[in-house]
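User: Fold this, then the next.

Assistant: Folding the first:
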Amino acid sequence: MEVQFFQEPNTFVGHVELKVQNLEASIKFYKEVLGFQILEQSERRASLTANGKRPLLTIEQPQPAGPKEANRSGLYHFAILLPNRLELAKILKHFAEQNQQLGASDHLVSEALYLNDPDGNGIEIYTDRESSTWNWQNNEVIMTVDPLDAEDILAELEGESWGGMPEGTVMGHIHLHVSELQKTEEFYNKGLGFDVVCRFGKQALFMSTGNYHHHIGLNTWAGVGAPASSEQSAGLKVFSLVFSSEEARQEVIEQVQRLGYEVKNEDGSFVTKDPSGNLIKLTV
């Protein structure tokens, strides 16, 4: 993993908060299947960490809690970036031992595994190839959805076994269902400062800072005009973007407001919503 994509001056996703129907069942999944540790826990909420210090993921059970709704804007998947290919091999072997149902893809820039949590929230676990090997054409990075060579990944193991989420794990990106792409692109580009780095036809868009392959994925696969999910349903609650400085955040707040979007200050946290109603926390 190349850390420069997740430090200043870049803007990146730091933390994701999910709504779940059953906190206990979700904690069991995130600990036993994914190997997270609990950082803090209350009756309806738990924050999860890879390094024992910084929360990457928070899960919360609304009151009342409802199932994930189909054909809505919101979470497609959040993506956990492992520090190296050996760690991907370890978790792949662990998933196989758990008979975990998986999807898998080679994206050229990365190698990825896909699964769902008990509520159907999408999760990607991936590792990046060296950025020097990524191919760029007309300012766009070339990504594909090729079959993953699982045997080649498992060959990294040399007898080592999985021991949970390793230190150095970060939130690599978030991929969202949105209701349309034109205003959404304007919001994330002219408002939040992300550049388009790849377009998949007219239905998906990948954006980043600092020439990463993507910190944000956006698609209309849930349908153009897809409404936002209800507050009680399982899915995305909010995700946090990390800015390099107070000045950088203030500049973005002003850009977002100039585009006609509201930025609220809630207990010292600045939050805004994208055109599809996805809630974003602007942090430093």
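Now the next one, as you asked:
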Amino acid sequence: MTLIQDTPQHLLGGLNVALLISHDSSREQMEKTRGALEEMGVTVSVLASGRSAVQVLDGDGLAQSMKPHLAVAVADPDAFDGVVVIASPQGGARLALDGDARQFLARLDAEAKPIGAISDGVLPVLSAGLGAERELSTPEHLVPAAEGAGAVVSQQAMAIDEHLISLTDPAGLDRFISHLKGLLAGRRVQTMAPGGDVSSAVGEGG
């Protein structure tokens, strides 16, 4: 798929993207990703394993509470055009055991919707069965899990395999977001309704 680097806003406006976060995930990664998408007219919803507040960490390690918009158990995959998984090592392991999170990711993957994973967010993706024969960029400690799942471990800090994008080094977050926008726009172009009207997952025009 050709990625659109300078993504036109009309290709993203009205889309719905989920941020699936874990306990102790990076507040900076979450806020930067959400802000960049919302600037383009994307509606971003924060999902977590439950409805209770989760702890997110600032760059200095200080914790803050954040209440998700939805529990992943009640989130409708058909209502979303893509998802980004942001997780800490322990949080990623918990998400990987969450059957609702696995099902949510598998449903989006089945419809070739863009799926992004930052650092340990790769583990829930692997647990959902999405890694087989796909190139993924993973933290060093997750390489055995990735290889065990049949993934091709990338030597690069970021890997893109069709609609799946993964990032190991948070320093590359801007580039990750740019390519994520391109994947979202590319899917919208591919799923344009007859007559040139563009539809999102929930039927909103661009």
